Amino acid sequence: MSVDITLKALSEEIGAELKGDGGHIVNGCATLTDANKQQLSFIYNKKYTPALLSTNAGVVVLSEGYANDCPTNALIVDNPYLAYAQAATILHSSIVNERSVHPTAVIAETSVMPTSCYIGPHVIIADNVQIGEGCSIGAGVIIGEGVKIGDDAQLFANVTLCNQVNIGHRVIVHPGAVIGSDGFGLAPKPNKQGWQKIPQIGSVLIGDDVEIGANTTIDRGALEDTIIGNGVKIDNQVMIAHNVIIGDHTAIAGCAGIAGSTTIGKHCTLAGGVGLVGHISIADGVHITGMTMVTHSIKEPGAYSSGTPFQKNSDWLKNAVRFKQLDRLSRKINQVLKK
């Protein structure tokens, strides 16, 4: 839901310099092209300058360099993108459900749930669950035995928390995420007789202020726990295997896959489609670009890439053949150099 706020109040909330009418009221956000007089917009890239010149927005969040081009009220800041995020959070506050328990919810008598929580339709809460103050549990959520949830957590529809999972304060879990399912632990039987499942007896520990995207899966540990640090942000459809450890404030984009027993440091970013093999370590401050396959540990901060940019298929086929020839060509070159 949106809220009405004066530009003077909004500027004070986000620490911006106000240029224009402090009494003007805005109640939402939109692009420079689509915004009306009651909406806020922003600019941080010069390619949108033409849209800024003709915008009908009630106010624009921008840096000092764009102030003279702005035809309307302006909120001047050093970091417009961050300030926009803060303003949008104020203008579009999360929907707050009433403190209630839907009559279709099934809650074990041994579980602890404060009266400040919202429990939606068809929720199932097993034995010995502890839920903190002010939590919102959406429709169809399943919470397994012994789960602990901190204060002000939001679990959207059809989230599954398996047994013994521990979630911190202010955690957001989007629809369909599964946390604490069994890790992929299998031992090969002799003579190609198949596989022996290895019991996964660890759990998942999730810190404070974590956000987990829709349909993401986080496996429980085999012996020790899978650990997600404070402030970690995980996009949709990410796969995190057993015994992975992710450091504080790391961000992982959609469709990334992290194999078992991998440790990722603090303040890292993994772009979309990144793959990490198991049993490696990633240092703090590492940034991995999209579709990169990481096959060994990274010990120094910085940006790393392995994916090849797209090209015409005919060129790609030629280069793929040449790639297979690199070892043979390298050996020939070494022979020539020796002579």
What's the gist of this structure?
The chain contains 4 helices and 37 strands.
Would you give an account of this structure?
The chain is 15% helix and 27% strand. The chain is flat, with a radius of gyration of 25 Å. Strand 5, helix 2 and strand 6 form a beta-alpha-beta unit. It is built from four helices and 37 strands. It has 339 residues and is α/β, with parallel strands linked by helices. The longest helix is centred in the C-terminal third of the chain and has 26 residues, at 313-338. The model has no long low-confidence stretch (mean pLDDT 96). The strands form six sheets. The protein has a ten-stranded parallel beta sheet with strand order 8-10-13-16-19-24-27-30-33-36, with no helix packed on it. Strands 9-12-15-18-23-26-29-32-35-37 form a ten-stranded parallel beta sheet, with no helix packed on it. An eight-stranded parallel beta sheet has the order 11-14-17-22-25-28-31-34, with no helix packed on it. It folds into three domains: 5-91, Udp-n-acetylmuramoylalanyl-d-glutamate--2,6- Diaminopimelate Ligase, Chain: A, domain 1 (3-Layer(aba) Sandwich); 159-304, Hexapeptide repeat proteins (UDP N-Acetylglucosamine Acyltransferase, domain 1, 3 Solenoid), CATH 2.160.10.10; 313-339.
Topology, element by element:
Elements: E1 5-6, H1 7-14, E2 17-19, E3 25-26, E4 28-29, E5 39-42, H2 49-53, E6 59-62, E7 73-76, H3 80-91, E8 106-107, E9 118-119, E10 124-125, E11 130-131, E12 136-137, E13 142-143, E14 148-149, E15 154-155, E16 160-161, E17 166-167, E18 172-173, E19 178-181, E20 186-188, E21 195-197, E22 204-206, E23 211-212, E24 217-219, E25 226-228, E26 233-234, E27 239-240, E28 245-246, E29 251-252, E30 257-258, E31 263-264, E32 269-270, E33 275-276, E34 281-282, E35 286-288, E36 293-294, E37 302-304, H4 313-338
Parallel strand pairs: 4-5, 5-6, 6-7, 8-10, 9-12, 10-13, 11-14, 12-15, 13-16, 14-17, 15-18, 16-19, 17-22, 18-23, 19-24, 22-25, 23-26, 24-27, 25-28, 26-29, 27-30, 28-31, 29-32, 30-33, 31-34, 32-35, 33-36, 35-37
Antiparallel strand pairs: 1-3, 2-7, 20-21
